[in-house]
Amino acid sequence: QINVLQAKKKFEILDAMLSFMHAQYTFFQQGYSLLHELDPYMKKLATELDQLVIDSAVEKREMEHKHALIQQRPQPLFYLQDFSYDDSKVEFNVDAPNGVVMEGYLFKRASNAFKTWNRRWFSIQNSQLVYQKKLKDVLTVVVEDLRLCTVKPCEDIERRFCFEVVSPTKSCMLQADSEKLRQAWIQAVQASIASAYRESPDSYYIE
């Protein structure tokens, strides 16, 4: 009986192996059929990809060439009076009831080694220059007292419409969205400085 059982097991194992081979054959055959149907599309996609690589290389080369030309070319004088980018009405009020002389978006150059530019919501209030990353964030004070500061436009920089607020301890480089806005911010800072001096005795800062 044991010999009979062992003889049967040999055939059962062989039958299981053969069934497994057929299953594998069917699986890969179906996979081949599906991928074979996709073959024309994959060839077309490969051709388009080659063209995209070529177009990207050409565009990169053209942009590098334009960038080199811009760096070599002097800044046109008409940029200083270019107000076409912003036709909105720009106002500031040193006597505003809420204390906010002027507010709006500006780009701020970071003081880290990378000198990155970040867009922040700036405002002039209570003789201070402050900004927020988001509307409900806590105010970050850039300049604690505008009476100790000066403001000036900056032309010798890689970006347009920049101006700098300089205090005794640090300086802050800012960029407006247009020449019109830059002039408005500079005038707002200057007006705030003058207003702050009028509101406090001059002798306070003699020392």
UniProtKB/TrEMBL annotation:
One of its GO terms (molecular function) is zinc ion binding. Residues 99-194 form the PH domain. It is found in: Endosome membrane. It comes from the Eukaryota. GAP activity stimulated by phosphatidylinositol 4,5-bisphosphate (PIP2) and phosphatidic acid. InterPro entries: ACAP1/2/3-like, AH/BAR_dom_sf, BAR_dom, PH-like_dom_sf, PH_domain. PROSITE patterns: PH_DOMAIN (PS50003). Keywords: ANK repeat, Endosome, GTPase activation, Metal-binding, Repeat, Zinc, Zinc-finger. It is a peripheral membrane protein. It holds the Pfam family PH. Signal peptide: none annotated. One of its GO terms (cellular component) is endosome membrane. GTPase-activating protein for the ADP ribosylation factor family. PANTHER family: ARF-GAP WITH COILED-COIL, ANK REPEAT AND PH DOMAIN-CONTAINING PROTEIN 3, CENTAURIN/ARF. The BAR domain mediates homodimerization, it can neither bind membrane nor impart curvature, but instead requires the neighboring PH domain to achieve these functions. This is Arf-GAP with coiled-coil, ANK repeat and PH domain-containing protein. It comes from Ramphastos sulfuratus. The gene is Acap3.
